[in-house]
Every structure is written in structure tokens, then in C-alpha cells.
Design goal:
- With 257 residues, the chain is an alpha+beta fold.
- The chain folds into two domains: 2-80, OB fold (Dihydrolipoamide Acetyltransferase, E2P) (Beta Barrel), CATH 2.40.50; 83-253, Recombination protein O, C-terminal domain (de novo design (two linked rop proteins)), CATH 1.20.1440.
- The protein is 40% helix and 23% strand.
- It is built from eight helices and eight strands; from the N terminus they run βββββααααβββαααα.
- The strands form two sheets. The protein has a five-stranded mixed barrel with strand order 1-2-3-5-4.
- β1 and β2 (20-27) form a beta hairpin.
- The chain is elongated and about 60 Å long.
- The mean pLDDT is 94.
């Protein structure tokens, strides 16, 4: 058993026995890790608030070789992201961002770029007004897909390589934009407007902070978000769900978000 230090963001936790809980972190150095925090449910626990959902903390844990569950020795909160937990709508967007990481990334696969993206999207969700949340999550989703190796091709037809005209589709199974001649080759292609494609390009090149400061959600950002969420679902195993994303979409469609 070896000792390790890193920073990590709390993705999820659950009670374990009477006084402990198991916490899933996405860490800077080790990727997604699970650790038992013994005594963390006691009133005067040494972990304090550092294990609250979406808190970024400094961690010390004992790594058990050939095991998926490790032992957390120390955790100190660096950024609590309290504004997210105070707002049910922000919590829904943050939960979708975190669960997409959980679903797409194997355990203990380091990805510092993804860690920085997750930290950044939580910060922007915390700061954002509600009209900006859709743009922030959609932009994060595209950036996250590239960070984990599933980034779609958007600058030309993913099948034939030709330049894209005004009529454009997105191939969920092809992995990117499709021209009129190729879209029938993907049974799960989704038609999209040229403005939506251009907005996706903006998602790739513009920071989430800049989007929050300069843009608001509109019909094109809604279409881009729907397509990107569908593409994320297409990358996970058949029948699996992203429950927080399902909840977010129901809440959004009922005009609560």
C-alpha cells in the first residue's frame, strides 16, 4: 500500500456503514478514483466539508494495488463551489457535467486536461446567471469529448471529407458533420442548421468564461446542446443512462431551467 497526494473534485458519495462513506473523485494526477473516508459521517470528522459534492480538495490517500477502492487519509477543501449546491438548476447542470465524466472515463486513467475542464465548468456554473448555463454546459460537453478522445469532426464531412454546404447533418455513429450526399449512411444522423454548426466551432475555440460574459442561450445553442448530449449517449454502452442529464433535460423542457 502506497501513499499519494493530489487534488480532486468530488463527483459522488454514498454512505458506508454507520460512520463512513465512499467518495468518488476526479483527480488531477490519477483520474477517477474511489476511496473510503472512515469516520467522515461523525459530527466532528477531520474531513469537515471537504467531501461535499463538487468541492475541489487537496487529498492524501493510501492506494491499494489491484483494488478499485482506496483509503482516504486526509482531505482539505480548496474550493467549495457552494453556489452550485444552493441552486437546484445549477446543481442539475453541474451533475450532468460530472456524470458525463463518470460514464466516459475508465477508473484511474489520468487526464489532466479533463480535470482542468471539469474544474473550469464548475467555476463558470457557479458564477453564471441561468440564461448562460446551457451555453456553458454545451461548450464543456464538446471540449470534454475532445479531451477523452471522442471529439467529433466539424470542419468537413466526416465520411467523404468534402466541404460542408448549408445543409448539414450530425452523424451520431459517424462521429461528426455529414454532407447531403452522406447523411443517409448514418441511420442516427440529426439534421442541424448551419448556424448551429458554426456555434459548435465557437464552443471549441472560445473559453467557457468568455461565453458566459458575451453570449446567452438561443435556439441554436439549444439545438447544439441536444445534438451533443445525444452524441455523448451514443458513446456509452447500450442501455446505459446518464440520469442527471435526463433530469436536466426534463427540467429544461418544463421551463424550470
Amino acid at each position: 500500500m502506497s501513499i499519494h497526494r493530489t487534488h480532486g473534485i468530488v463527483l459522488r458519495s454514498r454512505k458506508f456503514r454507520e460512520s463512513s462513506k465512499i467518495v468518488v473523485f476526479f483527480s488531477r494526477r490519477y483520474g477517477k478514483i474511489s476511496a473510503i473516508a472512515k469516520g467522515s459521517l461523525k459530527p466532528k470528522s477531520k474531513f469537515g466539508s471537504s467531501l461535499e459534492l463538487f468541492t475541489r480538495s487537496s487529498l492524501i490517500f493510501y492506494k491499494k494495488e489491484n483494488r478499485d477502492l482506496h483509503t482516504l487519509s486526509h482531505s482539505e477543501a480548496l474550493n467549495a463551489n457552494e453556489e452550485i449546491r444552493k441552486d437546484v438548476v445549477k446543481l442539475a447542470y453541474a451533475s450532468a457535467a460530472g456524470e458525463m465524466v463518470e460514464r466516459l472515463v475508465p477508473n484511474e486513467e489520468p487526464n489532466e486536461t479533463l480535470y482542468e475542464l471539469l474544474d473550469a465548468v464548475l467555476k463558470q456554473i457557479s458564477l453564471a446567471e441561468r440564461p448562460h448555463l446551457e451555453l456553458i454546459l454545451a461548450s464543456y460537453t464538446l471540449k470534454m469529448l475532445h479531451a477523452v478522445g471522442y471529439g467529433p469532426q466539424l470542419d468537413s464531412c466526416v465520411r467523404c471529407g468534402k466541404d460542408l454546404a448549408d445543409e448539414v447533418w450530425f452523424g451520431l455513429h459517424s462521429g461528426g458533420a455529414l454532407c447531403p450526399a452522406c447523411h443517409n449512411q448514418d441511420l442516427h444522423a440529426m439534421e442541424m442548421r448551419r448556424e448551429t454548426l458554426e456555434l459548435m466551432g465557437k464552443f471549441q475555440s472560445v473559453s467557457m468564461a468568455r461565453l458566459r460574459e458575451t453570449s446567452k442561450a438561443d435556439e441554436f445553442s439549444r439545438e447544439a446542446a441536444d445534438i451533443l448530449y445525444a452524441f455523448v449517449r451514443a458513446q456509452i454502452s447500450e442501455g446505459a443512462k446518464i440520469r442527471s442529464l435526463d433530469f436536466l433535460e426534463r427540467m429544461r423542457d418544463s421551463s424550470l431551467a
